Amino acid sequence: MGRQAGQRAVRCNETIEGQDERMTNEKWQTVREDIKGAIGAGAWKTWIEPLKFGEVKGGVASFTVPTTFFGNYVSQNFGEHILYQLRRSGESVERLNFGAAANLRNQPVAASAPAAPEAAPAAPAPGAPSSAPASNAGLDPRYTFERFVVGKPNELAHAAARRVAEGGEVTFNPLFLYGGNGLGKTHLMHAIAHELRARSPEKVVLYLSAEQFMYRFISALREKRMFDFKQMFRAVDVLMVDDVQFIAGKDSTQEEFFHTFNALVDSRKQIVISGDRLPGDMKDMEERIRSRLQCGLVVDLHPTDFELRVGILQSKVEHYREQYPGLQIREGVLEFLAHRISNNVRVLEGALTRLFAFASLVGREITLDLVQDCLSDILRASDRKISIDEIQRKVSDHYNIRLSDLIGPKRLRHYARPRQVAMYLSKTMTNRSLPEIGRRFGGRDHTTVIHAVKRIEELKGKDAQIAEDLELLRRMLEA
Ligand SMILES: Nc1ncnc2c1ncn2[C@@H]1O[C@H](COP(=O)(O)OP(=O)(O)OP(=O)(O)O)[C@@H](O)[C@H]1O
Question: Which ranges are annotated Low complexity under compositional bias (predicted)?
């Protein structure tokens, strides 16, 4: 463990022992008044006043709330304020626990994470700890390393995520995960947070989407709570921001993000960011942010290959078997799905969920006929066509050059060769005409495209590197 983390743990323990008896209901009354200043009287009256303070024990502050929903809402929306104000008042509280009054006789209810958009309704996972750090609100309990299937396309991203989750000395900062839709970026980020929470419960791990960052920033500005906002973000040990491309073009949010980022990096706190493309290709993102996003470790989640998709389906089937015992699935069905639905794991998962639900309703075995009946719309939509845009994006990522340089006028070999590769793929993998391809590459003439195609045809036979690049790009585009 790094020096910093060790020092922090000792300090926390010392304070906790001294202060467990100290925290009283009277003190809570003072603290909650401070929260009123931070969140406004309306929200305070609705959400904070009804909280009944219980105790602080082992670094966990417990409250009784009217319902589980109430607890979840407070945890998600005001948890950080409560933690921050408690700590400011001298308490060394690491977590909050909200027990619903009705359930208290049985078991305290955790202020558990709400469901991710496509997730099952929020409920603490079986066996989950009975309290969750408020800063972990929003985590899907299913998105763990155990449930993440590793294959060639995602092995590097997985290894980097594992390294961060060990919570040791910060070696690369930030870890930037990028890739297309539904390839597992969010899953890996949640897995890091779950693992850190289990290994180092004293650490404050904050996961949020870039959109949430923006809304919190705007409401802090509106309610004149910028000091609290800054303190809150600077108090975290690990910050994870998902879908960072969302803040591109949003100037003041970018400005605040930039300062938050710098403050955390300066104090050697780990940052994990995800995006749908390379930082360098994020149009409308300020240059200073793009360069900072690239200064740690940048890893790509490549499109899944057939083997990985089959692996993911098999792992999901195992979980479904617990839910739908006795359901039979014919041989060849998973391979068929993995072959036909290739671009997005989320769609693949959705297809399987629908199949299991349908088969259990009608009491039928899952066969290829059932797949055709039940998934015709998904299968139709997955018969996708490859576009010139996609080819350009993949080629520029592959050769690590900017999209604008791939398309632009620069004639250096460093740009010209990838451009010829992209033109060749556009000719051989789409049914676009030569003039149209020329137009899409910065308004070039169709004879330039013919020359590029011929040149790559020639090189394919004698340059092993080009042959390998073409093969890899083709596989990624077809995936
Ligand atoms: N390797 C994998 N193993 C198991 N499940 C996976 C894997 N990759 C993706 N999934 C599942 O696919 C779904 C979509 O993944 P996730 O939300 O992490 O994608 P994403 O890359 O963040 O997509 P987006 O950019 O659209 O937000 C999730 O339910 C996730 O559990």
Answer: 112-122
For the chain, the structural domain boundaries read: 3-113, 152-301, 306-382, 388-478
36 marked ligand binding residue: no
Question: Is residue 99 marked as binding?
Answer: no
Annotated binding-site residue? 203: no
Question: For residue 133, what are the contacts with CB-CB under 8 A and spacing of at least 6?
Answer: 79, 94, 95, 96, 197, 201, 204, 205
pTM attached to this predicted model: 0.61
Q: What's the CA-to-centroid distance between 454 and ligand 1, angstroms? A: 39
For residue range 5-28, what is the model confidence (pLDDT) as tens digits? 332 222 222 223 333 445 778 888
Count of CB atoms situated within 10 Å of the CB of 339: 12
What is the second-level CATH architecture of the domain 388-478? Answer: Orthogonal Bundle (1.10)
On whether 182 is known to bind a ligand per the annotation, the reply is yes
**164 Cα–ligand 1 center, Å:** 19
Q: What span, in angstroms and rounded, lies between the C-alpha atoms of 388 and 351? A: 28
- Output the CA–CA distances (angstroms, integers) from residue 235 to 8, 11, 267, in the order listed: 12, 15, 10
- CATH fold group of domain 306-382: Helicase, Ruva Protein; domain 3 (1.10.8)
Find the residues whose C-beta lies inside 6 A of ligand 1: 143, 147-149, 154, 179, 181-187, 243, 276, 312, 345-346, 349
Amino acid 98: pLDDT: 87
- Which residue among 145, 158, 187 is best mutated to probe the pocket of ligand 1, counting the most ligand atoms within 8 A of its Cβ? 187
For 273-332, how does the pLDDT look when each residue is reduced to its tens digit (9 = 90+)?
A: 999 988 988 888 999 999 999 999 999 998 888 899 999 999 999 988 888 888 889 999
Q: What is the pLDDT at residue 22?
A: 59
Residues 304 and 72: their CA atoms lie apart, in Å, by 35
